[in-house]
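worker-03 picked up job from queue 'complexes'. Input manifest follows; two sequence lines, order preserved.
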Amino acid sequence: MNPFSSGTRLRDMIRAIRACKTAAEERAVIRKECASIRAAISDNDQTFRHRNLAKLMFIHMLGYPTHFGQMECLKLIAAPGFAEKRIGYLGLMLLLDERQEVLMLVTNSLKQDLNQNNQHIVGLALCALGNICSADMARDLAPEVEKLLQFRDPNIRKKAALCSIRIIKKVPDLADNFVDPVVSLLKEKHHGVLLTGIQLCTDLCKVNEEALEYFRKKCTEGLVRSLKDVVNSPYVPEYDISGIADPFLHIRLLRVLRILGHGDADASDCMSDILAQVATKTESHKNAGNAILYECVGTIMSVEDNGGLRVLAINILGRFLSNRDNNIRYVALNMLMKAIAVDAQAVQRHRATILECVKDLDASIRKRALELVYLLVNESNVKPLMKELVDYLEVSDQGFKGDLTAKICSIVEKFSPDKIWYIDQMLKVLSEAGNFVKASVWHALVVVITNASNLQGYSVRSLYRAIQISRDQETLIRVAVWCIGEYGDMLVNNIEMLDIEEPITVTESDAVDVVEIAIKNHSLNLTTRAMCLIALLKLSSRFPSCSQRIKEIIAQYKGSLLLELQQRSVEFNSIIGKHKNIRSALVERMPVLDEATYNGRRARSASAAVSTSLEFASNLSNGVIARTDVAPLVDLLDMGADEPVPPCSSGGNFLLDLIDVDMPSSSSQSDVLLDLLSAWSPPPQKGSPTTDIILLNQDDKPSVNALDILSSSMVPSGEAKPTGPYMMDLLDVFGPNPATPEESGPTFPPIVAYESSALTIIFNFSKRPENPQMTDIEAMFTNKSSDVYTDFVFQAAVPKVNA
Amino acid sequence: MGIRFVLMVNKQGQTRLAQYYEYLTLEERRALEGEIVRKCLARNEQQCSFVEHRTYKIVYRRYASLFFLVGVDNEEVSRAHTFTIMCPNELAILEFIHLLVETMDRHFGNVCELDIMFHLEKAHFMLEEMVMNGCIVETSKANILAPIQLMDKAS
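worker-03 finished. Artifact:
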């Protein structure tokens, strides 16, 4: 005996593992055992091979690596005794997988065992093959398996049938060989053989259209008869489950009939009587009976239309839905989702019950019910359904709010009958679960508000009211702050009051209070606080009486450690202090954002895979503008030249638009790349570049980069730390003469793409006169070092633009 | 029926038997078991026996201190017929779990966690007779247990 082999029995090892108090102890025990098993393996110890493999299986189950035992399985399989083979095959199925080369080695042993005379050994080999067979093995061993479908012992035939499924799934070309044997399997009486034969038939139908047609013609009647036999069979103790003979066979039969009947009127007709019998006669007090009914409903829904049967099926589902057992209700919801496609009207009748399920205590049921409700909504029922859902949002638990909010927003956007309803619902959602609302959803809300010129006053007042109540929903705060900035005057003066509104008295300083509270709330996101600064800038011009106070608030952020806030504060301070003449023009209302363009963009960005540049951009401080990082600067510059300026434009406004370009300005190297990206993107959608840029930039980010590039100073922003004086210089350049950028519009100045002590890359841009949409970029590489560059590779990343 | 794994877990969440009918690496298996156990064991008696997780639908049932969990394909769409959606029959799987437990009961006599731990290979043999490649092979307890009894007699 091997001196290293610990010789512990399997039982003792399991005891030792059970006695472990900590994971570390367990690891230690396992390590020791594995070491001794390895030693035994390398000594080729035979006495304990069997036991060692059993130990390894236990260790494997606990989730430790056991690959070193794989060869032991092969040795045991090759042994002549049944007991060795048995444990060897089990080990093979557990420890190995079809990807491993070891499988090649086992093919031969399998072949031998499949040809054995001992049925138990054949059974073992079939089972192993059925579980681990690879495509290569399938080709090699298919003839053996085919032969075994006619083996004398039914227990072998049933295993051979399932093994064939694996083979045809791995190598669909082999399907033809199995069609005829299946026909005879389907005539058998042995439940196991019938069960597996039907399964094989089902899978053949799935992989091969011809096989399906063949079975449909030849076997439909026979299968219907089998179902009749099993339904009407007298009590068979061996297969009886709560008074029903072999529910598993029932279900398999119903399932294969589903495939045969689908899309074929004759076959469907042939099975309608028995389906009706199953649907009406099956005992529904026990789970087994309900399982059959559930399957039967599925089959009725899938086969060709038979009005009477469908009514029967929907009624069964209705009964299920009002069942007190959650399992039954769950499957009912599941099936109703499929039934909608067949008979939406019938499902609508159960709407009230389904809605109750959305509020169930059980998360699985809630999820199913919510998905079903989502499918049930249409123009006529959206209002009452929405009221229920929104009311429930208030009390639903946190884990569910995300799903619920997403669905509600999606329904509201899809079915809102009018704008005021849309705005009302969105405000409710924002106040209840603003933190779960996705950026694209509230962006859309803002777009809608800017478009609804008669509802802007109403919106801003409602938002003001909402924010007084729920102060911790960040998205609500963002929308409210943005609207107060834009439409603050409407809030204070009750402009455009609707009849349904109650008048409120809000003073100018109340409005500023809201923004001030938000900006001072340190738990809020940087983007939100930056939006507050913009709103304050806008209010400083709308509310002259508060101008001084606003100036003071803004000035507090001059020293902010958050660069973004600091920069905005410095810039705005200079606008308020030094540029009174252009201020009012600068802070005019945002032009109307184009809904169609926004929705188009949104749809595209939702469908397109998130390109890397977007992902990376959204990591920057400002998540909100994720999609706009690529807003092409080229566009912006072009705008001055080829496009009509937006309606309310003036020199100052134009500058504001420019300032609005969002270039993430946090100082990081990656900005250089972003600059390039934005400079390179070909202008998408020539039609409306102006709105393109603006509409996505609700949180304006005046950025040093934009100004940099315009003033041709071309400093990569990494170096351009926004220090006060420097910024003011830049602003001063533009202050007196806001028209300057327009002149630089048509031709884009060269850009320093990369600069280091060893290499400079400069891009020169030129437009082709015949085709202004095309921009030629000439890259100039300058080697500033004394070395010679060889194998120089230049890689550029450009954002995907789905035009 | 598209069974993708069968797990037996005690109420502390320790795996006592794991059989997969598709290949997962060790890490994937550990992660999956951890996630599922956390999800299912947190549920109470009144909640339904079905939990959706990743691409699986897990049907589980508790017997005393032992949880039996079966993972099935969440949505099995047949390739030839895009309209025939072969959704799993959760109730049937539940019935199958019960059959498995009854079969083990018949062999071990009121099966408990320790029976499965100390006779892991036998539990696997039984499962092997019941499920192959994710499909149910046999539903008669006598047929399932016959080879195992034969083996016991021989040894």
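worker-03 released lock.
Confidence is low (pLDDT under 50) at residues 76-84 of chain B.
The beta strands of chain B are 3-10, 15-20, 50-53, 56-63, 66-73, 76-77, 85-86, 131-132, 135-136.
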